């Protein structure tokens, strides 16, 4: 019978073997592929970096030759002599030969340069090895025309019948530069520097991503610089290369889908001197062929082990200890309150008829009912705490409004118009801030702005009798706190400092130390009674919110702040209260320095 313990245990062991070996095969293949991919990417980029340095070296020699010829006095004297219509032809020939010898010296100074020639618009060509010819055929060459139209400085591999002394007719890559001017359209002379294609191609052919891969050296427009067919990359790779050319990344690896529905690896490296790019494409399947063979081997081994497990399951299935053991473990988890873990330990709840199925089903139902009951109790407590917190918050505004309106009335009676306007303006800004009850958490900068308006009202009310200061230390701009925690403390400090003396001194220090935010309010008042300080520090006393809501005693402001902070921050909040030797009190609130709304408002203990 399939629902018997024997059948279920056999099925369980089979599934266990399949999952274990399947997961092992998947993880082994995935991790091995990650290692191989990382090695291939780093190796390819390293080789491209080496080749890029080599290309930069060759390009540097080419530009050095171009700079040498362009800035030389020989080239300037030659250009002036050729342009002089009064100079005899014999002297012009001598000047041409001198220029040819100069080009020969420049060519011999650099190993990578195969030839340097100068083409003039009148059909004159001067090359190394005393080559001075007048043949207007090169004026019709496409590379010569394109240079004046589009300023195409680099020519892909080609053979030139005029320049085959040193390269023996082998393909060359050329750089075109104007002589005597920087503007290509008005240039009378064009310098053509040839480098054998083999200087670029032979080192490039030694870089391989896979057996069938090819590394391409692409120009500024995305076309191959060497004798390579760009269409071998495919349309997807070419489109990706166009996007790569426009981004800021210098090198990287991109995975593409080819026309056969398989993935290819595109490795690229940008060469900074001329805007060239190295791009290589290799099929991912070829790189991981050995891993696919290993995966097939693991699959065969898994099938063999499953067959062996059938015989082991037949012997183990005669016992019933396993389901009973799981049931006992689930009961222990319920005792600890871990209901999810308890349910995960129980077998699936199906319509089975075995020795322990009824017990397991009943126990599962008991867990569900118990968890639902606890959840309902938690939600009720949560709603009650939120309501009590809102009540504490709304308790502050009426008390402050009463004192401020009395001040406005007094100022108006004294006809202190400017002070009245200032107090009303400060009051308006404070009321605008306090009317926003959508969230009990605000930026610290907004709370400090609220406090500054409040201090302005106090200074208007008491004048020189009140010495109050607000000091900030540390980076406070991005911090977030609960609102209205400073104003009640400042109000109490000012009020009780005037209780036994004619002047009041109140100093507020706000500082950030590591991951904590400190608010210190000190005054010169009579001090707080010891029994009140004991109640404030007592977490059991502080957790009783209902008496605080009904209280009308003198310490309502301090108690309100402490109650709200404990309700909001839980164990993350701390308070320190110290009385001076003769008079004065220092109250320090220590809050967590929070920069984002990432802490829940209740139940943080």
Question: Which value, in Å, is the CA radius of gyration?
Answer: 43 Å
Question: What is the number of strand segments?
Answer: 17
Q: What average pLDDT do the residues reach?
A: 78
Fraction of residues in H or I helices: 40-55%
Q: Spans with pLDDT under 50 lasting ≥5 residues?
A: 548-554, 598-605
> How would you sum up the global shape?
flat
Please give the structural blueprint.
Layout: H1 5-71, H2 73-83, H3 89-108, E1 113-120, E2 124-127, E3 131-134, H4 142-150, E4 154-158, E5 172-179, E6 189-196, H5 197-205, E7 214-218, H6 235-246, E8 251-257, E9 263-270, E10 277-283, H7 284-287, H8 289-316, H9 321-336, H10 339-345, H11 357-394, H12 396-413, H13 417-434, E11 441-443, H14 444-462, E12 466-473, E13 480-482, H15 487-497, E14 504-513, E15 516-523, H16 530-537, H17 539-542, H18 545-550, H19 556-569, E16 574-579, E17 585-592
């Amino acid at each position: 019978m399939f629902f018997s313990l024997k059948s279920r245990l056999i099925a369980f062991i089979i599934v266990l073997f399949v999952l274990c070996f399947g997961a092992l095969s998947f993880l082994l293949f995935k991790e091995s592929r990650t290692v191989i991919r990382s090695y291939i990417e780093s190796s390819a980029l390293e080789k491209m970096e080496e080749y890029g340095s080599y290309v930069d070296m060759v390009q540097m020699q080419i530009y050095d030759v171009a700079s040498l010829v362009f800035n030389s006095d020989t080239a300037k004297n030659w250009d002036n002599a050729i342009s002089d219509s009064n100079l005899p032809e014999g002297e012009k020939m001598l000047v041409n030969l001198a220029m040819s010898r100069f080009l020969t010296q420049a060519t011999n100074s650099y190993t990578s340069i195969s030839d340097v020639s100068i083409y003039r618009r009148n059909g004159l060509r001067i090359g190394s090895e005393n080559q001075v010819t007048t043949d207007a055929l090169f004026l019709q060459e496409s590379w010569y025309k394109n240079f004046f139209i589009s300023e195409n400085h680099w020519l892909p591999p080609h053979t030139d019948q005029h320049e085959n002394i040193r390269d023996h007719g082998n393909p060359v890559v050329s750089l075109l530069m104007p002589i005597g001017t920087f503007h290509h359209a008005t240039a009378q002379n064009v310098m053509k520097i040839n480098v054998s294609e083999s200087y670029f191609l032979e080192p490039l052919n030694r870089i391989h991503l896979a057996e069938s891969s090819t590394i391409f050296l692409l120009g500024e427009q995305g076309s191959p610089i060497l004798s390579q067919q760009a269409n071998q990359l495919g349309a997807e790779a070419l489109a990706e290369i166009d996007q790569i050319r426009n981004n800021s990344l210098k090198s990287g690896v991109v995975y593409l889908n080819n026309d056969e529905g398989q993935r290819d690896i595109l490795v690229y490296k940008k060469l900074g001197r001329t805007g060239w790019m190295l791009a290589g494409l290799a099929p991912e399947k070829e790189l991981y062929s050995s891993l696919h063979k290993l995966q097939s081997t693991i699959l065969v081994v898994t099938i063999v082990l499953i067959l062996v497990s059938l015989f082991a399951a037949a012997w183990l299935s005669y016992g019933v200890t396993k389901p009973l053991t799981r049931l006992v473990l689930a009961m222990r988890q319920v005792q600890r309150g871990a209901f999810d873990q308890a349910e995960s330990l129980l077998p699936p709840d199906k319509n089975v008829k075995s020795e322990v199925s009824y017990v397991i089903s009943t126990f599962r139902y008991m867990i569900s009912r118990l968890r639902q009951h606890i959840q309902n109790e938690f939600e009720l407590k949560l709603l009650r705490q939120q309501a009590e917190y809102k009540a504490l918050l709304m308790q502050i505004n009426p008390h402050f409004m009463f004192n401020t309106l009395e001040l406005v009335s007094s100022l108006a009676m004294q006809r202190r118009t400017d002070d009245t306007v200032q107090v009303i303006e400060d009051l308006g800004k404070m009321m605008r801030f306090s009317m926003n009850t959508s969230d009990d958490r605000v930026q610290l900068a907004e709370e400090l702005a609220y406090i500054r308006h409040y201090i302005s009202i106090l200074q208007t009310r008491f004048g020189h009798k009140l010495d109050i200061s607000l000091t900030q230390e540390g980076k406070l701009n991005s911090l977030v706190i609960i609102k209205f925690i400073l104003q009640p403390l400042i109000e109490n400090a000012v009020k009780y400092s005037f209780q036994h003396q004619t002047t009041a001194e109140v100093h507020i220090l706000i500082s950030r130390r590591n991951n904590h935010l400190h608010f210190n309010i000190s005054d010169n008042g009579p001090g707080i009674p010891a029994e009140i300080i004991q109640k404030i520090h007592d977490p059991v006393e502080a957790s009783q919110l209902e008496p605080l809501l009904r209280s009308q005693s003198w310490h309502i402001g301090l108690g309100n702040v402490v109650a709200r902070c404990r309700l909001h921050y839980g164990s993350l909040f701390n308070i320190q209260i110290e009385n001076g030797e003769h008079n004065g009190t220092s109250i320090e609130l220590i809050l967590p320095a929070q920069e984002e709304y990432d802490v829940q408002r209740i139940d943080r203990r």
